[in-house]
Amino acid sequence: MAEAHQAVAFQFTITPEGMDLQLSYQALHQIYRSGLRSWKKRISRMQNRVIKGVYPASPSSWLFVVIAILATMYMRSDPSMGLIPGVITVLCVPRGSLHVSLSSQGQTMLSALVFSTLLWLSVILALRFCLKLLLSYHRWMFEKHGRTSTTTKLYTDIWLSCTLLRLLSGRKPLLYSYQTSLPHLPVPTIKDTLSRYLESVQPLLTGPGFERMTGLANQFESSLGNRLQRYLKLKALWATNYVSDWWEEYIYLRSRGPIMVNSNYYGMDFLYVTPTSVQAARAGNTITALLLYRRKVNREELKPSRVPGTVIPLCAAQCERMFNTTRTPGIETDVLQHWQDSEFVAVYHRGRFFRLWVYQAGRLLSPREIQSQVQRILDDPSPPQPGEEKLGALTAGDRVAWSEVRKRHFCAGVNRRSLDVIERAAFFVTLDEEDQGMRGDDPAGNLDRYAKSLLHGKCYDRWFDKSFSIIVYKNGKNGLNAEHSWADAPTVAHLWEYTLATDAFQLGYTEDGHCKGEVDRSLPHPQRLLWDIPSEVQAQVSSSLAVAQQLADDVDCHVFPFRDFGKGRIKKLRISPDAFIQLSLQLAYYRDRGGFCLTYEASMTRLFREGRTETVRSCSNESCDFVKALAGGEHCRQLFRRAAEKHQNLYRLAMTGDGIDRHLFCLYVVSKYLGVDSPFLKEVLSEPWRLSTSQTPLQQMELFDLKNNPEFISLGGGFGPVADDGYGVSYIIVGEDMINFHVSSKHSCSGTVICRGEARHDIFDLPMLTVSKNNMEGPT
């Protein structure tokens, strides 16, 4: 093969006359350039480690301290108050030792340097301590406008805190600069967690049921709870985050069912526009934008994410495993594998797998060159090898079966080499043969089919184990499917926002829809991956595909943009848009099912180091009172405000480490390690979340400029239902006048079947969204 020949730097032949050595200078030059790129990355990492290690100071500030100390000593003053002479005494070495004897002036100079360095490090530690102290204070989130408490005013009034934080962060911080200054997630008290839990289930239980649950909680608190809490506090002292490692392992990696639909989630393209209808060109720009983002992550050039409207930084640890990462199956638990670098992506098209090199001699290919390479894949007429076409179904089925097949048939030989290419790739790309998007005579139905395609595709044309996979459709639409264990949706959403904006506004296209740039025609063709798939593996592929297909056929998705009003109108009522939507969902569910259910809303805990998520239990006593009053036709403005304020308070508690569910989850894990059973914890963790919700934040509005480009509206993304008889609801607030919803359920549950006509009210009608017009009008 041509690419194999070019990969050989030299060849030799042994003859009777001696050895004939043939050098390939082109290959040697490519090896040199690739090695140079690797060394540049190593040097960049070392430089960034130094800069992060001394943040919020700078390496150059050391020189300033040294000069200041020496200048003071030159003026015959001792800035060390006697410490420098002490350092001289310690550094003095007896004559005759192996050390070179220094003059008196040299000893003084060396002592001044040592003292200056120690002083500089002490100042850094003091600044970092102050920064950590400021970031540990969260009561400002609970203060009402105009009612600042005395504690907040005296200790760290929010404006003073932000001003001081700006001063400490005067240097431009790197992506991970704040990591060591972020506080650790605190462990709530048993009493507070149980009290909040009982309050959250009160509207869902009858009188006797609530009394029984209260008894179980009291019994747990007085007996086993305090013992488990001591172990948990011990872990919190030792670990960076007492939740995240267990959450990743037990919620994601130890799950033995399919991760397709059940765990993976998706992100969509623009709603109204497709930058180009040329599939290869869209793939070229999308791949380039993703690799530019990876470069920013590697160089730590991305700005640290912050709490919206503030200078408070958020943890960036989830960015570390964004690229070059895959989830490998195991018998009892899966493992996340991450590689430092990868110079290629894995591509799937029409049943064939390819390796597409995106670097040539250490240089990132231009978008036009990547388009040319993708077009070569699209034009390749070769058929799939036996068993190759549906091989990806192994990643969509049960994990144990995939693990066993992988151990027996993918640990050596050609299968191992090809699997290594997919798993070590920067990410996975599917060149889909279908057209998708909001188009044609049935735009709403096509939008729903677009969502299902991104969520599961054909069940074999995605590689669900990769950290994320890009899907580029025949008509130029694209999308993303992400594995959940390594990061949460806001991290992937940030990546996807950058990708869409860079593709459309920075890289751009020519008038005929092709990528910009020149093409090096000498580039080697993309490499077909070779497989040897025996009948036993093909049988397991068919079995995994049957499991995945049954799951995919059962899922129903509905995507709809709500345009009647948006954030702008809601905020005029002085109501949180998120609280407004959550109360809308409570009313919609009540009208749909005739009651209330345990409701999950994901909240981030990235105010803390290595924080991930916490649950906001959106169904509260206050929300139920409001819904019942509205259903009964009562005047309910005051109840609505009370319910919205309660929801906001629950959200703030979750963000600041005082949530309910992660604490109870960790207590349950400790109980299993100790081999003790708790009826209370067992019942709590078996409760189904019939309404699982999540907001996708729009984090980089400045990239899109919706005022001048209103058609470039993001659709956000969605996920499958958590419970078989429940709904999954994702929403994204876009600009001031639109909210996009993604709702999923299962056909197998007659109570959650999507009715898109006028037959009945269901969750998709979102009736509560008319409340601001019918019930909330008037002065606030």
From TrEMBL:
GO CC terms: mitochondrial outer membrane
One BP annotation, GO: fatty acid beta-oxidation
Active site annotation, chain numbering: H484
Membrane topology, as annotated: Multi-pass membrane protein
Keywords: Acyltransferase, Fatty acid metabolism, Lipid metabolism, Membrane, Transferase, Transmembrane, Transmembrane helix
GO-annotated molecular function: carnitine O-palmitoyltransferase activity
Coiled-coil region(s): none
Subcellular locations according to the entry: Membrane
Superkingdom per UniProt: Eukaryota
Domain annotation Choline/carnitine acyltransferase: ranges: 185-752
Alphabetical list of Pfam families matching this protein: Carn_acyltransf, CPT_N
TM region(s), chain numbering: 50-75, 109-131
Family, per entry: Belongs to the carnitine/choline acetyltransferase family.
Name by which UniProt lists this protein: Carnitine palmitoyltransferase 1A2b
